[in-house]
Amino acid sequence: MATSWPYRPGVGGGGWADHMPIGGLAVTVFFPTIKTRLAPLTLVLPRRPTVMLEGTTDTPEYRIAGSVNGRSVYVSVDIRSKHPNAAERRAAQVALCSIRFG
């Protein structure tokens, strides 16, 4: 996981979503253990969010799924802004482009 703010787990109680500032960005990468057939992963922010982050009304969540080296990968990008502007979306895309798989 990567955040755009200095989040420290266990400090202040609650999880990262409870501490996300307005305009904050969180990127989570998940490798499921169940085998699925997915197209190769393309790290491009979708035009529209898939859902809102659970329990929120102001944090759209963009989801990307694909495979890397034969393994399934799920990436979620959360932006705490009800309607992310171009700069917030660009920052999210830069974060996605920074992801590296070994």
Report on this structure.
It is globular, with a radius of gyration of 14 Å. Helices cover 12% and strands 27% of the residues. The chain has one helix spanning 86-97; strands at residues 2-3, 25-30, 51-52, 60-68, 71-79. The two termini are 16 Å apart. It has 1 helix and 5 strands; from the N terminus they run E-E-E-E-E-H. The chain has a 5-stranded antiparallel sheet, covered by helices on one side. Strand 3 (51-52) and strand 4 form a beta hairpin. The chain is of the alpha+beta class.
Summed up:
By secondary structure, this protein is α+β, with helices and mostly antiparallel strands. It has one helix spanning 86-97; strands at residues 2-3, 25-30, 51-52, 60-68, 71-79.
In sequence order, what are the helices and strands, one letter per element? EEEEEH
Sum up the overall morphology in one term: globular
Radius of gyration, CA atoms, in whole angstroms: 14 Å
What portion of residues is helical? Answer: 10-25%
Discrete helix count: 1
